[in-house]
Amino acid sequence: RIEVARIVKRRKYMRKMKYAKRQLTRVFLTVITFSIITTFILVISSSEDHTCFVSVPDKSFYSIDESLLDFISSSNTLITNLEDALKDELAQVSEYSQFIIKDVQQIQETIHTMEQHLDERKFQLLLSLPIINDHNFTFTHNPIGTCTTSPTNILIVVPSATTHFENRTTIRNGRRGDFTRDAKNKAKMLFFLGRPQTGTDSKIQQKIDMEAQQYGDIVQENFEDIYKNNRLKSVSMLKWVSTYCSNVKYIIRSDDDITVNVSATVSVLYRTSEKLTNFMFGRRLINDTPIRSSSSKYYLSTEEYPSPVLPPYLLGGLQGYPISTARRLYEAALRVKPIWLEDVYITGICARRVHVPILTDPAFIFEHHDP
């Protein structure tokens, strides 16, 4: 009986390995097909005679993208199944097992390359769409040399209300200011403002002018600085870093009424960049619902956003991302239909359109209070 059981088990094992080999053969054929398609796409898109292929969306191109996405999904499922089978049979390593282990690693590397390629192709398609939210406000204050006067790896951007003079002073003298003054961190900090609300004291702008002259850390655009315009302020930060600070590595966005452990957030960004090129960190909300009460500060009408559920998004109080992600988000914000809730719009809607994953980490948990 023991011998019969061994024979039966061995036959089951051999059948499983033969099945795995057949599946891998199919994957290899698909990889070859993908390579041919990818080469064709790259040749066409890089040809000066076919620039319209990139600039004008085409239905056949979309179908190729979708086919490649199907391939990625199927391959990931197959790899998971094969790895599970290998875990069950590790005690009986055969030539087939070695074959599978080696080529699963190769397939994983190929899939990663494919995903990067597809992300870039999707971004190029987004760039071909017309701009519908042109951010063409002029600067009242614009310290354009902030990131070029000395090597800069980290830029801390702080959206701030025009009247929050005390908050900004406290931040300059606090942990964020200390971090930027430490030369080894290679960090800078800027505050982003709009113009004072219509009807307010004209002395507010005069105080901002004096503050900008004294510290050189104020970026001010001429949109009205009211709560409903927070989306414009978010876009102004993305535009500024993409235009005037493209040499920086990472952006830390933090409100002017929270405390931040900048070193902890930067460490998270450096670690994550070893695996991902584009990403965002923050405090993530999932299955949140829009507030339909018109008396609420966060009211979102069904006309502006019909869905009963908001997409996963990051709260705006504290976020971190690479400079390449900032550029993608800015380009998306110019082309994607807006909603006024800026954290939902930028991190929930625009990030998804440019395939930027939103992640969470304890270093990015925060509470609003005096800075």
Summarize this, please?
The chain starts with a helix and ends in a 12-residue tail after the last strand.
Word description of this protein:
- The protein has eleven helices and eight strands.
- The protein has 371 residues and is an alpha/beta fold.
- An eight-stranded mixed β-sheet has the order 1-4-3-2-5-7-6-8, sandwiched between helices.
- Helix 7 links the parallel strand 3 (187-195) and strand 4.
- The relative contact order is 0.10.
- The model is unreliable at 39-62 (pLDDT under 50).
How much helix is in the residues? 40-55%
Could you say which overall geometry the principal axes of the C-alpha atoms support?
Answer: elongated
Mean pLDDT over the full residue set: 83
Order of helices and strands: HHHHEEHHEHEHEHEEHHE
First-to-last CA distance: 75 Å
- Count the DSSP helices: 11
Major sheet size, sense and barrel closure: 8 strands, mixed
How many strands appear in the DSSP assignment?
8
CATH architecture of the largest domain: Alpha-Beta Complex
What CATH calls the topology of the largest domain is Spore Coat Polysaccharide Biosynthesis Protein SpsA, Chain A
Task: Report the uncertain regions.
Answer: 39-62
Category by helix and strand content = alpha/beta
EC number: 2.4.1.-
GO biological process, one term: protein O-linked glycosylation
Subcellular location: Golgi apparatus membrane
Keywords: Glycoprotein, Glycosyltransferase, Golgi apparatus, Membrane, Signal-anchor, Transferase, Transmembrane, Transmembrane helix
